[in-house]
Write a structure and sequence with these properties.
Shape: flat
Mean pLDDT: 93
Largest sheet: 4 strands, mixed
Helix content: 25-40%
Structural class: alpha+beta
Order of helices and strands: EHEEHEEEHEHEEHEEHHEEHHH
Low-confidence stretches: none
Strand order of the largest sheet: 1-8-9-10
Strand content: 15-25%
Length: 397
């Protein structure tokens, strides 16, 4: 019997890095709203009282960056200087520039050495799915997302009004023979109001925060998992978390790529998603890889599936592609790879068309994971290719 414990973490939309992802994706959405063929690579940095936006854009659209930044900050909840950022008084510095014409000619159809639309960069991308949850995601990252998501919901609804936007979660799951059997540890760090006017000291304040988070966040989320868990929780391990947000920690776009994907349970190719239009295969091919893996598992052709792409800049065909099922497949990995190649589009233009990626929806991806989401905008999460996969398998028998 093989036993081990696996841990994943997530962060809330108010974490400084996620604030940057949200701003970059909100700017991308506005460009795509005005021009579906916009090419955008937008990077954001946040620090005390200041937001820097930079990157490369080619678009017929025009975006008022300070307005987008301030609206995004307000949506997240950064509207009070006490929270580490104030959308009313923030300083916004925008330094967006035009995309390199040498990159553009390799991506624009018929402009470069090859007729087809090529990949926007070289690189490798992974997708993954498994049957540990109904969303076909690994359980540790799934639970980690749900914890910070629930905190945000309680903060915005007013159920826990003293919560502030910046928070993190961490979940450790025990496995036997690659199956989750119990939840052994949960860690929460959440920013909160200064409540010393209501409590005698910091220790009493901490006890209150701890009990509220355990009762209204941790236990309700864990109860939904149907797995046993130990009452072994750490809430605000330093004792207090009032000073937070961009004032306490500088944020950058793309610095939470493991949170964005599978929580370390599956490989990552290294490329971030946020702020990038779908011509960048870092984003579009990673979405297609997840889509392929999820449909294979949903079709019951495997219990666990990993997909890898690699591309060369300016070239449409992937330089490599594989499907791996860790011995859980109903056929060999070689045959599943051939099956996927015959059923799914693998070139950038085909991926973008199939998943309808030229339309605004990216702001919603900027927190709580790009995968395992039940929202129609997340087209790469649909399992609409199950029948096609199964019928193709039957035809080849």
């Amino acid at each position: 019997m093989n036993k081990y414990t696996f841990t994943s973490e997530s962060v809330s939309e108010g974490h400084p890095d996620k604030v940057c992802d949200a701003i970059s994706d909100a700017i991308l959405d506005e460009y795509l709203n005005q021009d579906a063929n916009s090419r955008v690579a937008c990077e954001t940095l946040v620090t005390t009282g200041t937001v820097f936006v930079s990157g490369e854009v080619t678009s017929t659209g025009t975006v008022d960056v300070p307005i987008i930044v301030k609206k995004t900050l307000n949506d997240i909840g950064y509207n009070d200087q006490a929270y580490g950022m104030d959308e009313k008084n923030v300083k916004v510095i925008s330094m967006l520039d035009k995309q390199s014409p040498e990159i553009a000619q390799g991506v624009n159809e018929g402009s470069g050495l090859h007729e087809e639309q090529g990949a926007g960069d070289q690189g490798l991308m992974f997708g993954f799915a498994c049957n540990e949850t109904k969303e076909l995601m690994p359980l540790p990252i799934h639970l980690s997302h749900r914890l910070v998501e629930k905190m945000t919901g309680h903060r915005k609804s007013g159920k826990i009004p003293w919560l502030r936007p910046d928070s993190k979660s961490q979940v450790s799951v025990a496995y036997e023979d690659d199956k989750p059997i119990s939840i052994v540890k949960v860690v929460i760090a959440t920013q909160h109001d200064d409540m010393l006017d209501k409590f005698e000291n910091e220790s009493e304040e901490h006890k209150f925060v701890e009990k509220e988070i355990i009762d209204h966040v941790i236990k309700p989320v864990l109860d939904e998992s149907s797995l046993p868990y130990k009452d072994d929780f750490i809430v605000n391990g330093t004792g207090r978390f009032v000073f937070g947000g961009p004032e306490a920690d500088t944020g950058l776009t793309g610095r939470k790529i493991i949170v964005d994907t599978y929580g370390g349970y599956a490989p990552h190719g290294g490329g971030a998603f946020s702020g990038k239009d779908p011509s960048k295969v870092d984003r579009s091919a990673a979405y297609m890889a997840r889509y392929i893996a999820k449909n294979i598992v949903a079709a019951k052709l495997a219990n666990k599936c990993e997909v890898q792409f690699s591309y060369s800049i300016g070239i449409a065909d992937p330089t490599s592609f594989y499907v791996k099922t860790f011995g859980t497949g109903t056929m060999s990995d070689e045959k599943l790879t051939q099956l996927a190649q015959s059923v799914f589009p693998l070139k950038p233009a085909g991926i973008i068309e199939h998943l309808k990626l030229k339309y605004p929806r990216y702001r919603q991806t900027a927190a709580y994971g790009h995968f395992g989401r039940e929202d129609e905008l997340f087209t790469w999460e649909q399992t609409d290719m199950v029948d096609k996969l199964q019928s193709t398998v039957n035809e080849r028998k």
